[in-house]
């Protein structure tokens, strides 16, 4: 989906930019989010097992580029995240729910209302896409797989 297009009821990128969305805000969100993720007892270990201490700055910049591309259309991200996530055998719905809860908390805390709503809508689509692709990769049957439920921030 183009950054300028939105689904019905979802804030547009233009609305978020009018509220102050820029690359600096995306960077603040990503950095604060990963501070919380690294300390989380459920998903922190998943990240720590794959990202060495000295590689966190690089990872944060890569994810900042991802969100800048997704929301602002910067085209600064060129990675292929799906294969890396498919290789994480322990990833389950609980991990995705926690990731989303921490993400919602972060953007609600740091962003204006419409910008937070845009981040949340996109993050939920990203999580569902990853979740479904991982399930297909594992050979799971997806016919009656309900969407993720929301978890509150710890």
Automatic annotation (TrEMBL):
It comes from the Bacteria. Keywords: Heme, Iron, Metal-binding, Transport. Pfam families: Bac_globin. The keyword Metal-binding applies. InterPro entries: Globin-like_sf, Globin/Proto, Hemoglobin_trunc. The keyword Metal-binding applies. SUPFAM superfamilies: Globin-like. GO terms for molecular function: heme binding; metal ion binding; oxygen binding. This is Group III truncated hemoglobin. The lineage of its organism: Bacteria, Pseudomonadati, Pseudomonadota, Alphaproteobacteria, Rhodobacterales.
């Amino acid at each position: 989906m183009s950054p300028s297009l939105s689904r019905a009821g979802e804030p547009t990128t233009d609305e978020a930019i009018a509220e102050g969305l820029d690359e600096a805000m995306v960077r603040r969100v990503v950095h604060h989010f990963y501070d919380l993720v690294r300390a989380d007892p459920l998903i922190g270990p998943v990240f720590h097992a794959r990202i060495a201490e000295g590689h966190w700055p690089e990872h944060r910049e890569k994810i900042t580029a991802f969100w800048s591309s997704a929301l602002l259309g910067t085209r600064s991200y060129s990675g292929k995240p799906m294969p890396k996530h498919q290789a994480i055998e322990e990833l389950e719905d609980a991990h995705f729910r926690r990731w989303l809860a921490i993400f919602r908390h972060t953007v609600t805390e740091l962003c204006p209302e419409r910008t937070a709503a845009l981040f949340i809508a996109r993050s939920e689509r990203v999580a569902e896409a990853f979740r479904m692709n991982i399930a297909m990769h594992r050979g799971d049957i997806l016919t009656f797989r309900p969407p993720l439920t929301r978890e509150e921030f710890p």
